[in-house]
Amino acid sequence: MQVLQQQFQVPFSYQVIFTKHLFDSSNKTLCDFISNFGQSNFRKRILFVIDKGVADAHPSLTTSIIDYFESNAIADLAPEILVLPGGEVCKNDPRFYEEVVRAIDEHRIDRHSFVAAIGGGAFLDMSGYAAAISHRGVKLIRIPTTVLSQNDSGVGVKNGVNYLGKKNFLGTFAPAVAVFNDVAFLATLEDRDWRSGIAEAIKVALIKDLAFFEWLEANVEAMNSRDEAAMVEQIYRCADLHMKHISGGDPFELGSARPLDFGHWAAHKLEYLTDFKIRHGEAVAIGIALDCVYSHLIGAISLADCERILAVIKGLGFDLYHPALAENDCQNLHKGLQEFQEHLGGHLTITLLKALGKGEEVHEMDFPTIQASVALLAKHA
Amino acid sequence: MQVLQQQFQVPFSYQVIFTKHLFDSSNKTLCDFISNFGQSNFRKRILFVIDKGVADAHPSLTTSIIDYFESNAIADLAPEILVLPGGEVCKNDPRFYEEVVRAIDEHRIDRHSFVAAIGGGAFLDMSGYAAAISHRGVKLIRIPTTVLSQNDSGVGVKNGVNYLGKKNFLGTFAPAVAVFNDVAFLATLEDRDWRSGIAEAIKVALIKDLAFFEWLEANVEAMNSRDEAAMVEQIYRCADLHMKHISGGDPFELGSARPLDFGHWAAHKLEYLTDFKIRHGEAVAIGIALDCVYSHLIGAISLADCERILAVIKGLGFDLYHPALAENDCQNLHKGLQEFQEHLGGHLTITLLKALGKGEEVHEMDFPTIQASVALLAKHA
Ligand SMILES: NC(=O)c1ccc[n+]([C@@H]2O[C@H](COP(=O)([O-])OP(=O)(O)OC[C@H]3O[C@@H](n4cnc5c(N)ncnc54)[C@H](O)[C@@H]3O)[C@@H](O)[C@H]2O)c1
Ligand SMILES: NC(=O)c1ccc[n+]([C@@H]2O[C@H](COP(=O)([O-])OP(=O)(O)OC[C@H]3O[C@@H](n4cnc5c(N)ncnc54)[C@H](O)[C@@H]3O)[C@@H](O)[C@H]2O)c1
Ligand SMILES: [Zn+2]
Ligand SMILES: [Zn+2]
Hints:
Low-confidence stretches of chain A: none
Number of strands of chain A: 11
Radius of gyration of chain A: 21 Å
Number of domains of chain A: 2
Structural class of chain A: alpha/beta
CATH class of the largest domain in chain A: Mainly Alpha
Oligomer: homodimer
Bound molecules: nicotinamide-adenine-dinucleotide, zinc ion
């Protein structure tokens, strides 16, 4: 038997650049990136696609972009700036990603050219998918505009759309060539969206970084009063932990390495049970609360630590409980655990806490203890 | 300005395994691969999708697959074996890849499970695309059944379908987890398909490997008489050169590294000009002839070398010329050169020959010399 062995590594690198007012004519961040990217003898084109929620909240955005590229001749700006709905709706209907693909073709964006996507996590997932499958991947610049997309989804390597009624059924792993976190966008977020993304910071702090958890604890008030500097620090630290997890592990999840999904098994189920009426971060906050109480009930963390965690979550304005958790004697929730196991290829792995700032993987969860955890949380309702 | 730097490498490895009668119950090749793949605590499922041209030519194929998985309990065989049209038609109509995605969902093929695709290059491109975008990539096993797919497309890292009237507009880079080259499939190929793929061997031999070119020269007769051992050796050497090119370069074409496309600029145009009536390999054979004559006319290779090349191409039964080359005073062909440049991001790079077995990149081609090359080839029509 003859065999040919193939083996190679594909290197990826990108920066997440923190800035403010990216399209101010005096802001050279984007300009410098594009000018220095790739080889100078390739012609560069750039197509902008924008989340309608952002465009509506920032009415002068498209004009600023046009002006920016007029005063900085760094790339040919496509004459069309595509504005499409943001939020989950843009991932549910294939017409939206097809519309981005259509524009990529029409404006001759090739593998040396850019799609720059401005929007929340859902919009970046959708437009990133369109960019990844066109010409086997045109260069993607991400400009996330929500807390969650700046501290988590936008700095990672995934994209996706929903299909056949399943979340993220279609998608790829495709790192952006650059991410620009512009804090000015966050000012127009609804309170719920401002808060929601902070759940991912609590998640990653609890399993990886006690000092960050303590920082969050000390900054509850600042977050609640929408302090910009505090928010930037939170995003920076949270994004950093997420990025290190990706590069230190199995970025494209080819083996059995797993994403940072503490608190997420229950959160995913809760999103479905509530028909996605609660935000992802709101569901994650409840999922974290549940897994912390569970960790306490099995003796892994103390009552005092558990209460400290719940106080931070609650202090930030999150609910700790949702009635859907208890429905049907918690059987619906339990089904979520089975689905999670199924999703992992039949072998369950759940992250719990063994201390503040220290996660621990387990391979089973006890149903009566889950029920007891839900009952305890219900008292916080 | 704060910046987070992300940097990682994603490792890929797979084997191309040469075998015969892959689904004979006594053939343990596939069985061993699946048993040893990944972690044993994950449940493995496998879905087969088959090119109808292959299924028709090998009527007992599906039964053999079912029997194979019955006698070897290595994975859960999906109860449905999908047979879909092969050839370019399966890349032209999105219904076909959507059908593969539907089956992946229905048979719960997850990231730990396999899609095994059996077929020609077009079918593997289509089904590989479906596998790559489902769940951000389920594991793909490729079982190529044409010469071209065994020596070139099937051992590489690309997939794709046609969209908006453009070839391979949608696609990704997604290496298979294994490739099984089963020579028994080749027996049922039409002569045109048996021959066509050999053009890729001539291509890669001419630019990289004089000894291989000389081997091809010595084996024209064996190829023409459909000698199986000669074909296997040709495929092995050709696949090896392609795979080394990929791993030694820029596998996902993230920078400006380029695929092995000697002879391909004219070939691509010829496929369009003839409405894809001539096979890819047939077009490549003519494209190689053209670039060899051109290389000779600009003094890069001798007349004797040029004639040696043309003799091999012709000896294998390929045409050296097609009237579409000369149409419109070669303006149509010339447009193909401009489109190729456009496709490369505005910066033209063409491989020509500087010796037998040695390619050389140039960044311009002289139109009158192209016309003269076409005129010379016309004499061979
Ligand atoms: N790719 C990943 O790794 C990953 C990880 C986690 C979550 N996600 C996905 O992210 C999505 C959730 O993202 P999200 O939390 O950013 O919410 P979102 O994208 O759903 O946006 C919420 C709403 O805010 C609007 N909006 C966005 N930016 C705004 C701004 N600056 N001002 C005013 N309105 C604005 C949007 O139009 C939308 O209506 C989900 O689809 C989830 O699956 C992806
Ligand atoms: N992914 C890549 O890197 C890459 C590289 C080169 C070419 N390609 C693609 O490959 C395609 C061409 O592939 P091809 O040359 O293998 O032809 P093909 O896939 O178009 O197949 C030709 C015909 O042969 C039939 N067939 C396949 N195997 C058979 C067998 N064993 N017996 C009888 N009939 C059989 C098919 O049903 C089809 O009708 C093109 O779409 C081209 O774009 C892809
Ligand atoms: Zn999350
Ligand atoms: Zn080719």
